Description:
- The complex is a heterodimer.
- Chain A is mostly beta strands.
- Chain A has strands at residues 4-5, 10-14, 19-25, 32-38, 45-51, 56-59, 62-67, 72-77, 86-93, 102-103, 107-112.
- In chain A, strands 2, 4, 5, 9, 10 and 11 form a six-stranded mixed beta sheet that branches. A five-stranded antiparallel beta sheet of chain A has the order 1-3-8-7-6, with no helix packed on it.
- In chain A, β4 and β5 (45-51) form a beta hairpin.
- By secondary structure, chain B is mainly beta.
- Chain B contains no helices and eleven strands.
- Chain B is globular, with a radius of gyration of 13 Å.
- Chain A binds chain B through residues 32, 34, 36, 41-46, 49, 89, 93, 98-106, and chain B through 4, 31, 33, 42-45, 48, 50, 55-56, 91, 93, 95, 98, 100-108.
Amino acid sequence: DQQVKQNSPSLSVQEGRISILNCDYTNSMFDYFLWYKKYPAEGPTFLISISSIKDKNEDGRFTVFLNKSAKHLSLHIVPSQPGDSAVYFCAASAKAAGNKLTFGGGTRVLVKP
Amino acid sequence: DAGVIQSPRHEVTEMGQEVTLRCKPISGHDYLFWYRQTMMRGLELLIYFNNNVPIDDSGMPEDRFSAKMPNASFSTLKIQPSEPRDSAVYFCASSRDRAKNIQYFGAGTRLSVL
């Protein structure tokens, strides 16, 4: 039972354009959402997060949007840069379930120069 | 800070052998997590500790897997005996902020069981 899903395994975008990554979840108890970025042979690194009491959080070129009614969140990267080429993971946690993170399967982003 | 440190980075062993993976969390972090990443199952949580005490080990696949945290700066994940299906990348992560739950990951140990 996949509680967090990233339905697009890969995404290719031109440098300077917007990258939009999507994530869906099924567990209504999730109250905190995170995006991680992973380069080959490295561990995931934290990128940006959002609490369920908000619908948007912005940090530089990265913005995360949360639509609780649709159980959907998205990550926007504007403008995309070649260094953004990586695998992006969506993750979710629920206070009631302790400190566990449930990860999506990841989306591989390729930014073409 | 050096970040979360895992050793070894790569491990190749034969089926039936014991494997021990090591992790040093970030100083001051009181949560430690062990994950496994495979193509089939993605990133899955195996076990996590709070203040050196195991809190949730429901992700540990079977009795062949065990994890310990003897002190705040060291944890081990042991597989005994190892099997080819244990081949995966194992990540350790630590965090200190329960409210935000931002976890910091090590570089991982790539395990190959032949």
